[in-house]
Amino acid sequence: MDPERAAPLLEVHDVTKSFGAVAAVRGVSFPLFGGEAHALVGENGAGKSTVVKVLAGVHEPDRGSIAVDGEVRRLTSPAVARDAGIAVIHQEPTLFPDLSVAENIFIGRQPLGRFGRVDRAAQRAGAVRLFDRLGVRLDPDRPARGLSIADQQLVEIAKALSLDARVLVMDEPTAALSGVEVERLFAVVRALCAQGAAVLFISHRFDEVFALCQRLTVMRDGAWVSTDPVAEVGVEQVVRRMVGRDVSALFPKEDVEPGDVVLEVDGLTRRGVFADVSFSVRAGEVVALAGLVGAGRSEVVRAVFGVDRYDAGRVRVAGAELRPGSPAAAVAAGVALVPEDRRQQGLVVELSVERNATLTRLGSLARLGLLTGRAERRAAREWTERLRVGYGRLSDAVGTLSGGNQQKVVLAKWLATGPRVLIVDEPTRGIDVGTKAEVHRLLSRLAAQGVAVLVVSSELPEVLGMADRVLVVHEGRIAAELSRAEATEESVLLAATGQGVSAA
């Protein structure tokens, strides 16, 4: 049936939700049609997560309505939303690790046989039928513990189907998936749509949105901006609507004449991980480590910073050799590392914004061994304001901030140390396009101030837009070194897959 002529399977109408004086969502409306994947996009803090929670029955709107099959439904709890046929597939599913896949699918609704016992054969057969509908193979008897994120998501989708869900909300489902896993998830989404389901797909990745979705809704500052068929809009137009301004330069690179070598890596080797890695970064230079996932890029920068030990080689900062395996020595020499996993390695999510922003300087802020709250707040406010971190109060837990603002807090923590060398691993993963532009602008500005910047990135546009030189890593070795003029998508990908020329 043509969605343009069909009635929506679900319709969000004029939904508004406030928390205290903060209006998280204001007058948001859009339809979800059966047989379609519908993208919901916007910057961090645009209100997407609040819309998801309204649909999931976690929050009731202050105003507006949700209609399913034309009937207005009050989604007062997750159970009510589930009964209405709405299921939310989160970025990181929460399964019972010691139960089997089939037991997780039918938890609380196990088929019963004689004498009221669980009919395990029927449960297993039901799981197999659900996976057949999805077109995937997954062993119903294996424990959930140890499943990849991608397989956990499939279990959650199968559970949703077992509950007769017809509206599936997928909140950043591909953030932790590999390329092959993303393709498999897309095949599952297309199969669901072919069976008449409506899928609300939330992602920061425009290539995925345009490859998968038929319709797209843009939100900005908690408000609805537009809803259009994907075929009628382009990336530039969507970006402009998301950020409320014309983003003519997502990669605001400043031209800087590089200075002396600040970071020098010579013959770095860790058996089975990377071998004979040598490169240098000059003051004012942005150097990118590019390559496929698993090539060893993150492992190299962790070793440079001293988080991981290495078997051979040397690391020098401003000519002085760093003690291996000592992050403290790296920090003392002026090296800072913003890790890939900001929540696990870059932040203490239970602590406040101000404490996280000052963790690297607690000693220098103390007077006679005592740290005052006033000194900590003053130091935290200086850098959070310079980076335009969005927060309610400095005393709020940093875990309550959006992904982009958490990334800025990690940057603030390290920039406050005045580093000579800034190493940033996946600086814009999981953050929106407007915040990406801010991070790119910040890195470029730091380079212009003489900082040596080393970036690990899996996003080719970011690599090509920001780097003065690109070092391509293939299977733990530097496969090619490309100048800004030489670096193209083709040349980087050829080297990343082992087809490019070796570095001179």
UniProtKB/TrEMBL annotation:
Pfam family for this entry, one = ABC_tran
Q: Does the keyword Methyltransferase apply?
A: no
UniProt cross-references to PROSITE patterns, sorted A to Z:
ABC_TRANSPORTER_1, ABC_TRANSPORTER_2
What protein am I looking at? Sugar ABC transporter ATP-binding protein
List, in alphabetical order, the Gene Ontology terms for molecular function in this entry. ATP binding
Superkingdom field: Bacteria
Q: Does the keyword Protein biosynthesis apply?
A: no
Q: Which CDD domains match?
A: ABC_Carb_Monos_I, ABC_Carb_Monos_II
Q: InterPro entries, from UniProt?
A: AAA+_ATPase, ABC_carbohydrate_import_ATPase, ABC_transporter-like_ATP-bd, ABC_transporter-like_CS, P-loop_NTPase
The chain positions of domain ABC transporter read 10-246, 256-500
Q: Which UniProt keywords apply?
A: ATP-binding, Cell membrane, Membrane, Nucleotide-binding, Repeat, Sugar transport, Translocase, Transport
